[in-house]
């Protein structure tokens, strides 16, 4: 019997296989397709995912095929900047740029290569899930492969099988509709030159439009233009009422829509497809020993590029808890904190994306003009307080944290060290405890010492997924950690 069965090997499932495999857990990965999906779907990750790639040991594989960019710009109906979330000149407290773009087929290939040589990870391609049963304890998964029916058993299963999740449907889990659904056309292209933009007023001097995700909040047709790695570019264009999906995907229509941005620049359309941007969250993330992750658990409007990030956070949350149960004999009950930690987190970010989507998708010119005036006034009132996308990510407010202590649930910083490495490269992963004395010895320019001083703390304990467990004295934190993990103090030490 395996420790974990992962159903679906897109980027989220593949990251889970790497994280769990590095811990030495016995993992089986079931993927219905024989090869990874050949076209780009997700394109954006943030600094937190780069840090997870560090933890998973795949950073050197993925980094050469990624590009960091400079944030987000929202442009109003009269070509006026109404919201700037740029990162040029801003500090990078987590060690990485906030916004990274990639080409999904390359990323999937690199992530799969990361666990390919792990003897404890069994990757079964062409294995299509059909049913599961956990009436006698283990999760027994039935799947078809090569025209025959097979079964595999695992202590736990993680369903990373996408928005239409057969596992979620087999479990009868419903989705909570957050009342956002808009039709958009997504076009990916290889562009051998710069994208053209109209003259936009109010763009900060340091901003480079070629390195920003630019959201044109134009009531005539809202559109997003995002950069990519190499010459890859993406357009997301809202479909207007009564427009037909098939007609809008026709090559001549796509050429017409992209003409203002591309003109005569040589380019090749890689794909065009229509989507319904949704805000959906599963009502139940855990059923017995089966856990939903990624799009199987939630769907996020893409306005801040957090869809895949959510899925990576999901499996990172499960990874260290499953490892602690298997390796350290922690209480299995710690897995019951999965939904209580992740659900509010996801809903908070989806709420921000839906709120942005509502003003972005405004098609009434009068209301759009009023929106622009209000947002410009708000930006002017906050002069000097530059907003970035990572400000949208809330802290964990419940679950395995030392509640009430300063900084509990925040993402912990990852300063760049004096020798150019990052903090995790020095300390490794797992649980980490920094006291004031430890912090003073770190070659980090005083960053961790300053973090502790800002919170009036003697020590900080960090979870393996890089969220702060809590602050206090070292002894207080060890006791709280042992109690919440179901460990004896001697074992926890």
Give a topology summary.
Blueprint: E1 2-7, H1 11-22, E2 27-31, E3 44-46, H2 47-56, H3 59-62, E4 66-69, E5 71-75, E6 81-86, E7 99-102, H4 104-116, E8 121-125, E9 128-133, E10 139-145, E11 148-159, H5 166-171, E12 175-191, E13 213-216, E14 223-226, E15 232-238, H6 245-248, H7 251-262, E16 267-282, E17 286-287, E18 290-292, E19 298-299, H8 307-328, H9 338-360, H10 365-381, H11 423-427, E20 432-435, H12 436-441, H13 447-454, E21 459-462, E22 468-472, H14 474-485, H15 489-492
Parallel strand pairs: 1-2, 1-11, 2-8, 5-13, 11-18
Antiparallel strand pairs: 3-7, 4-7, 5-6, 9-10, 10-11, 12-15, 12-16, 13-14, 14-15, 16-19, 17-18, 20-21, 21-22
Helix pairs in contact: 1-4, 1-8
Give keywords.
globular, 493 residues, single chain, 32% helix, eight-stranded mixed β-sheet, oxidoreductase, alpha+beta, EC 1.14.13.127
What does this structure look like?
With 493 residues, the protein is α+β, with helices and mostly antiparallel strands. The chain has 15 helices and 22 strands. Strands 1, 2, 8, 9, 10, 11, 17 and 18 form an eight-stranded mixed sheet that branches. Strands 6-5-13-14-15-12-16-19 form an eight-stranded mixed sheet, with helices on both faces. Strand 5 and strand 6 form a beta hairpin. Helix 1 runs parallel beside helix 4 and helix 1 runs parallel beside helix 8. The mean pLDDT is 94.
């Amino acid at each position: 019997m395996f420790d974990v069965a992962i159903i679906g090997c897109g980027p989220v499932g593949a990251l889970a296989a790497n994280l769990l495999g590095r811990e030495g857990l016995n993992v089986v990965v079931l993927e219905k397709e024989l090869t990874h999906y050949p076209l780009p779907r997700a394109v954006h990750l943030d600094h937190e995912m780069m840090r997870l790639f560090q933890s998973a040991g795949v950073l050197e594989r993925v980094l050469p095929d990624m590009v960091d960019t400079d944030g987000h710009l929202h442009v109003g109906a009269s070509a006026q900047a109404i919201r700037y979330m740029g990162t040029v000149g801003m500090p990078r407290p987590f060690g990485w740029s906030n916004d990274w773009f990639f080409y999904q087929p390359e990323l999937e290939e690199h992530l799969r290569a990361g666990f390919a040589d792990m003897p404890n990870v069994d990757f079964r391609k062409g294995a299509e899930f059909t049913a599961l049963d956990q009436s006698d304890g283990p999760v027994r998964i039935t799947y078809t492969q090569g025209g025959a029916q097979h079964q595999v058993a695992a202590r736990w299963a993680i369903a990373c099988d996408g928005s239409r999740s057969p596992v979620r449907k087999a479990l009868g889990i419903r989705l909570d509709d957050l009342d956002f659904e808009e039709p958009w056309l997504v076009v990916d292209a290889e562009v051998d030159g710069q994208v053209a933009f109209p003259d936009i007023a109010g763009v900060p001097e340091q901003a480079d439009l070629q390195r920003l995700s630019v959201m044109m909040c134009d009531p005539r047709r809202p559109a997003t233009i995002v950069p990519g790695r190499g010459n890859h570019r993406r357009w997301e264009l809202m479909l207007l009422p009564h427009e037909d999906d098939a007609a809008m995907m026709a090559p001549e229509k796509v050429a017409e829509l992209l003409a203002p941005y591309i003109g005569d620049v040589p380019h090749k359309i890689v794909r065009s497809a229509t989507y319904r941007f949704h805000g959906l969250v599963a009502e139940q993330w855990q059923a017995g020993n089966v856990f939903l992750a990624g799009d199987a658990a939630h769907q996020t409007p893409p306005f801040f590029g957090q869809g895949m990030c959510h899925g990576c956070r999901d499996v990172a949350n499960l990874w260290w808890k499953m490892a602690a149960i298997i390796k350290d004999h922690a209480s299995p009950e710690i897995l019951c904190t999965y939904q209580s930690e992740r659900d509010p987190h996801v809903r908070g970010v989806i709420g921000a994306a839906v709120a942005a989507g509502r003003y972005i998708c405004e098609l009434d010119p009068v209301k759009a003009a009023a929106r622009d005036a209000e947002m410009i006034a708000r930006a002017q009132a906050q002069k000097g307080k530059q907003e970035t996308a990572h400000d949208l990510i809330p802290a964990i407010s419940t679950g395995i944290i030392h509640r009430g202590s300063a900084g509990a649930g925040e993402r912990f910083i990852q300063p760049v060290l004096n020798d150019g490495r990052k903090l995790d490269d020095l300390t490794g992963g797992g649980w980490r405890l920094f006291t004031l004395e430890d912090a003073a010895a770190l070659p980090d320019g005083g960053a961790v010492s300053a973090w502790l001083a800002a919170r009036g703390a003697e020590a900080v304990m960090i979870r393996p997924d890089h969220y702060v467990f809590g602050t206090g004295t070292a002894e207080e934190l060890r006791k709280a950690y042992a109690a919440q993990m179901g460990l004896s103090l001697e074992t926890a030490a």
